[in-house]
């Protein structure tokens, strides 16, 4: 079922592209999720890899990397010593940290539970 892996990577890549471009013009998305220029550029880079993985690759590695990164970044967003840095440099707030964890867990689920 590599098609599920590729489809998930492609859809996530497209969503990240929209969020990345949207974030270039605002510092809050949907009035809840804090973003800034640096975070938006990283979203666009991750989007490019996702779109590539969904069209030319197998999607599995992208889903794994995004899953691990999402969970790690989300958890770090709740560590007091680190959360201040994430807020300062990336405008990451608790809502984004929760979203990162959710996306990370779903990405890892797709990677490991869909064969």
Radius of gyration: 14 Å
Mean pLDDT: 95
Strand order of the largest sheet: 1-2
The total tally of domains equals 1
Structural category is mainly alpha
Largest sheet: 2 strands, antiparallel
Can you walk through the features of this model?
The chain is mainly alpha-helical and 115 residues long. It is 77% helix and 3% strand. It has one domain. The protein has five helices and two strands; from the N terminus they run H-E-E-H-H-H-H. The chain has a two-stranded antiparallel sheet with strand order 1-2. The termini are close together.
Short characterization:
By secondary structure, the protein is mainly alpha-helical. The chain is 77% helix and 3% strand.
Q: What brief labels describe this structure?
A:
3% strand; 5 helices; mainly alpha
Element layout with pairings:
Layout lengths: L1 H22 L4 E2 L3 E2 L2 H19 L4 H17 L3 H11 L3 H20 L2
Antiparallel strand pairs: 1-2
Helix pairs in contact: 1-2, 2-3, 3-5
């Amino acid at each position: 079922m590599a098609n599920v892996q590729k489809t998930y990577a492609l859809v996530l890549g497209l969503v990240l592209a929209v969020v990345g471009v949207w974030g270039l013009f605002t510092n809050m998305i949907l009035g809840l999720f804090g973003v800034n220029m640096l975070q938006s550029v990283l979203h666009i880079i991750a989007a490019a890899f996702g779109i590539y993985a969904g069209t030319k690759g197998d999607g599995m590695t992208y889903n794994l990397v995004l899953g691990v990164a999402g969970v790690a970044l989300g958890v770090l967003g709740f560590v007091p010593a680190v959360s201040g840095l994430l807020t300062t440099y990336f405008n990451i707030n608790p809502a984004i940290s929760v979203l990162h964890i959710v996306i990370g867990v779903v990405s890892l689920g797709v990677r490991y539970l869909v064969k």
